[in-house]
Amino acid sequence: MHFAYPPRKSSNPPPFVPRSSRIPALRRNRLKLAALACLSIIFLFWLFSGSKTKSSPKRVITGTPPVVIVTAFEEKAVGSEFIRNAKSNRREYAKLNGYKVHLVSANDYDLNGSPLSWAKVPAMRHAMAKYPNAKYFWYLDQNSLIMNPSLKIEDYIMSARKLESNMIKDLPVVPPDSIIKTFSHLKGDDVSFVLTQDKEGLSSGSFIIRNGDWAEFFLDTWFDPLYRSYNFQKAETHALEHIVQWHPTILSKLAIVPQRLINSYSKSGVGAQYEDKDIVVRFPGCATSSSPGEVQCEEEAKRFLPKWQQAFKNA
């Protein structure tokens, strides 16, 4: 039996051509993109994990002093005796309770033509820079006197237990029928801004702010040149009512408390009238200049001078 021989290999084989080792362009591009994506993820992970370990420690407020009392005086508009009594009143109260005072002239601040009542906002910001470790700042306008030296702000007003029992929840921010209301679920520890209402709306003559980043944000927002340019009828007070109603970030830290807690009035016409043992008495609507027929702040305050002086003497 004969078998066919396999064909002989050619003595002149075609030249050897190795297989191309190049990856097709599309595949190569995809691999590059994947590599870049992996490198980006690794870099971002390193960046954020490193920033956490190297970031500045969280600011700690030591509460020294516990409270700073702030007043911006329109000294040219009020008699010097009245100013001396008001300053002495605040200094004595601060001394008895271990507080500090920040008593300044409203003219110290550039208000760009706005009413001097706006000075309370930069005065508070100034006090926060001067006393960065203070826990609370109490703004009290010049037409006021502290009457009860035994009441401490950090206990009487700002403790979580007191705030939760005193704050008025689900209350129209601007009476009588604002659709924006104070939060009904707010806890005492969440509050950073405490003030009162009178019969006309929010009262910005006496309020308390808890120190911190939120307080700085709030004061900077309130003092925005845009709001000062609006020429609100009640200047900074109406600006405050505006931002409280339109900025939930501010409303979420606000507690409105009964007026007599920090803002009793010498007369009952527009708000709660002062009673013995209230912490403060204010003289709303009094004249700061010698306008005929108007009750002068200095005259209005005279009947309260013996009371606060005796109370402080007995403290």
Automatic annotation (TrEMBL):
Gene3D superfamilies in alphabetical order: Spore Coat Polysaccharide Biosynthesis Protein SpsA, Chain A (3.90.550.10)
Protein's UniProt keywords contain tRNA processing: no
Gene Ontology cellular-component terms listed: mannan polymerase complex
Alphabetical GO biological process terms: protein N-linked glycosylation
Record field: transmembrane: 31-49
Keywords annotated in UniProt: Glycosyltransferase, Membrane, Transferase, Transmembrane, Transmembrane helix
GO-annotated molecular function: alpha-1,6-mannosyltransferase activity
Superkingdom in the source lineage: Eukaryota
Pfam families: Glyco_transf_34
PANTHER family assigned: ALPHA-1,6-MANNOSYLTRANSFERASE MNN11-RELATED
Family, as annotated: Belongs to the glycosyltransferase 34 family.
Protein name: Uncharacterized protein
